[in-house]
Specification:
The chain is α+β, with helices and mostly antiparallel strands and 390 residues long. It folds into 3 domains: 118 residues, Sulfite Reductase Hemoprotein, domain 2 (Alpha-Beta Complex), CATH 3.90.480; 130 residues, no CATH class; 91 residues, Sulfite Reductase Hemoprotein, domain 1 (2-Layer Sandwich). The chain contains 9 helices and 21 strands. A 6-stranded mixed β-sheet has the order 6-7-8-9-10-11, with helices on one face. The chain has a 5-stranded antiparallel β-sheet with strand order 1-2-5-4-14. The radius of gyration is 20 Å and the shape is globular. About 3% of the residues have low confidence. It binds iron/sulfur cluster (SF4). The site of iron/sulfur cluster has 13 residues, from loops. It comes from Paracoccus simplex.
Length: 390
């Protein structure tokens, strides 16, 4: 392994150093931004960052290219916008993804808010970095979104599902579901955390006994939430660019969005961030944002590429430039992940083809796997790769 595992994600109060300066992650409330908040963030990106931002797979927004002074100014501005937590610890524990299609103030919305409140309270379960929740709505769209605990509404009541488990907890209503999810997180902390790290799936492998009140997971859900999703196939995002129940989804190559694009989007309505690195504009119809992906068949939507060089100090190659060159060669229905090192930040799941940089112009190819899996071909030069993608 030639990369550093940090075990935590950047936040607003705890930014992460990268090759292009500090990365500041904004964890919006339930993934929603009012137009004024989005415009203000775009202004911060212009004035304090490098004008580039990331839409992350945790449905957050990252400012890039800040220095220490800019970071201080940015956090003060975020506090004024109501987008800052009280402490880095509270910020890290408030790791809740809500379905971007969940109606505002509906049951799923309220469940996600209740979890966020509980996880930032003084008596919150002390979960490790990266431990997170996903709150789905009806119809569910977050089955492919990694989460340690997920909440799923049923025809009557809710299921609370631990990642990697073959059982679930039940609840009659959203408030009870949120409470049970937080109690499940507390149950996890009693044995699931080692050296400050841990994930639910690993805990259940070691200690498969379920807590009191658990029911066996219905077979129909076992297929949707396989016990070991890490070994599951590459899956397409459930929602591509186009109309959505509450607005219009726009795609952005590699989840990269500029301050100008965010300004244009903010002028059209409130925004929802999604775990598919797409942006939903509430109430919009066929919005025109320069450089956004509108065509659901655009092969760039099936390509994952991390920041790579020069933005990431661990990167061995400029992977986004290569990913753009390779996208037109990708056969329909196939996915590609180009990673600057074996850490694989851009995509946790498998891809039809995964390229891992081993030097500025050398890549290992893994078929139907992920970075870290055994490579089928090693040391490929970029011009040898296109025929291998068909
Ligand atoms: S996967 Fe990419 S972004 Fe992540 S550490 Fe490696 S080079 Fe950097």
């Amino acid at each position: 392994m030639n990369f550093e595992i940090k075990g935590w994600c950047p936040g607003a109060l705890r930014p992460m150093a990268s090759g292009d300066g500090l990365v500041l992650r904004i964890r919006t409330r339930n993934g929603r931004l009012e137009p004024g908040q989005a415009q203000a963030i775009a202004d911060l990106s212009w004035s304090l960052g490098n004008g580039m931002m990331d839409l992350t797979s945790r449905a957050n927004l990252q400012l890039r290219g800040l220095d220490a002074r800019g970071h201080g100014k940015a956090t003060a501005a975020l506090a004024r916008l109501g987008l800052l937590d009280d402490s880095p610890e509270a910020e890290a524990r408030r790791n809740v993804i809500l379905s971007p299609f969940a109606p505002q103030d509906g049951a799923a919305w309220q469940a996600a808010e209740a979890i966020a409140r509980a996880m930032t309270a003084p008596d919150a379960p002390q979960v490790p970095g990266k431990f997170g929740f996903a709150v789905d709505a009806d119809p569910p769209v977050l089955a492919g979104t990694p989460a340690d605990i997920r909440l799923r509404p049923q025809a009557e009541g809710w299921l609370i599902l631990p990642d990697g488990g073959d059982w679930a907890l039940t609840a009659r209503h959203a408030a009870q579901a949120a409470g049970r999810a937080v109690e499940l997180a507390r149950w996890f902390t009693q044995g699931g955390v080692r050296d400050g790290r841990g994930r639910m799936r690993d805990h259940l492998r070691r200690s498969p006994a379920a807590p009191p009140g658990a029911i066996p997971l219905p077979p129909s859900l076992l297929s949707k939430y396989p016990c070991d999703r890490a070994a599951g196939p590459a899956s397409a995002d459930p929602a591509g660019p186009g109309p959505a129940p509450n607005g219009w989804l726009l795609g952005f190559a590699f989840g990269q969005i500029t301050a100008r694009q965010l300004t244009e989007a903010a002028a059209l309505g409130p925004l929802r961030l999604t775990p598919w690195r797409a942006l939903l504009i509430e109430g919009a119809s066929r919005p025109q944002i320069g450089g956004a992906i509108l065509d659901p068949s655009d092969p760039l939507l099936r390509v994952h590429a991390c920041t790579g060089a020069p933005g990431c100090p661990q990167a061995l190659a400029d992977v986004r430039a290569l990913a753009r060159r390779l996208a037109p060669h990708l056969a329909p229905g196939r996915s590609l992940h180009v990673s600057g090192c074996a850490k694989g930040c851009a995509h946790q799941g498998a891809a039809s083809a995964t390229l891992v940089a081993t030097g500025p112009d050398r890549f290992d190819l893994i078929r139907d796997g992920r970075p870290g899996d055994p490579a089928g071909l090693a040391g490929l030069a970029p011009d040898r790769i296109p025929p291998l993608l068909r």
